[in-house]
Amino acid sequence: MHFALLFFQVKELVLDNCRSYEGKIEGLTDEFEELEFLSTINVGLTSVANLPKLNKLKKLELSDNRVSGGLEVLAEKCPNLTHLNLSGNKIKDLGTIEPLKKLENLKSLDLFNCEVTNLNDYRENVFKLLPQLTYLDGYDRDDKEAPDSDAEGYVEGLDDEEEDEDVLSLVKDRDDKEAPDSDAEGYVEGLDDEEEDEDEEEYDDDAQVVEDEEDEEEEEEGEEEDVSGEEEEDEEGYNDGDVDDDEDEEEPDEERGQKRKREPEDEGDEDD
Predict the structure, then answer these.
(1) 102 CB-near residues (< 8 Å, 6+ apart)
(2) How many helices (H) and strands (E) in the chain?
(3) Are 48 and 27 in contact (CB under 8 A)?
(4) Could you tell me the pLDDT band of residue 271, with boundaries at 50, 70 and 90?
(5) What's the CA gap between 87 and 102, in Å, rounded?
(6) Helix, strand, coil share (%) of the chain residues, nearest 5
(7) According to CATH, what is the number of the domain 3-173?
């Protein structure tokens, strides 16, 4: 992906401790159109004149630099600023921060460790000079601490926006009936269950086939036994018939023998 395309997507950029050259930070250009949070702590800046135009920038961290004036350019280059941290710079008087009036959305300003904080009635005068402010150095007009002191509250706000986007994305997926990646596992489990059911059905079918084959084998064995029994009976009947026939054949022989035998009485009669 081309670097220019990446610039369009960046919302937070931290360049702390990078070195600036002649009031410029190399690589920081107006191509970061979506940038909302920029941190340039301790980069050696003496002026903000060379900052790129960042219309969507909301929070700018410039602490621990050597900025002493020229803040009027911020209204031109970062018109939507809500948080500005100038602590640890060379701000000496109220006139230096007066141009910040033009930042209508500015809610929080930090001037810690700047000489201007040593002025009499410093806080009261700053709130009068910049009526749009809600918090100065982390506290409101009633000395109540800001819940989003420093960068923490702003970063949390970005995280909340990202979470909301994620929720909207999930809702859209649900409405479109598209299963998120996290549900793929359940889908695979469903497929596994279906495969198990199919395996069980196949197993039952195989078992039924085996039972049917066993029944057929038993029936065939029973039929073979019946046939064998009938054959044995036929053989026995056949043998009995042979014996009877032999006996019948022997009887005429005996009769014929008896007929050929002459009794003594008959012989006497013949002599007479």
Answers:
(1) 72, 75
(2) 7, 6
(3) no
(4) very low
(5) 20
(6) 55, 10, 40
(7) 3.80.10.10
For 128, other C-beta atoms within 10 Å of its C-beta total 11
The DSSP code sequence of 114-171 is -GGGGSTTHHHHHHHH-TT-SEETTB-TT-PBPTT-TTHHHHHHHHHHHHHHHHHHHH
Sheet containing 37-39: which strands, arranged edge to edge? Answer: 12-14, 37-39, 59-61, 83-85, 108-110, 135-136
Report the Cα 211 to chain-centroid distance in Å: 47
Place of tokens 């810690």: 112
- The model's pLDDT over 134-192, given as tens digits with 9 standing for 90+, comes to 999 999 999 999 985 444 444 455 555 555 555 444 444 444 544 455 454 554 455 55
Amino acid identity of residue 237, one-letter, is G
Long-range contacts of 150-157 (CB under 8 A, 24+ apart): 150/85, 150/110, 151/37, 151/39, 151/59, 151/61, 151/83, 154/37, 154/58, 154/59, 154/83, 155/12, 155/37
Residues 158, 37 contacting (CB under 8 angstroms): yes
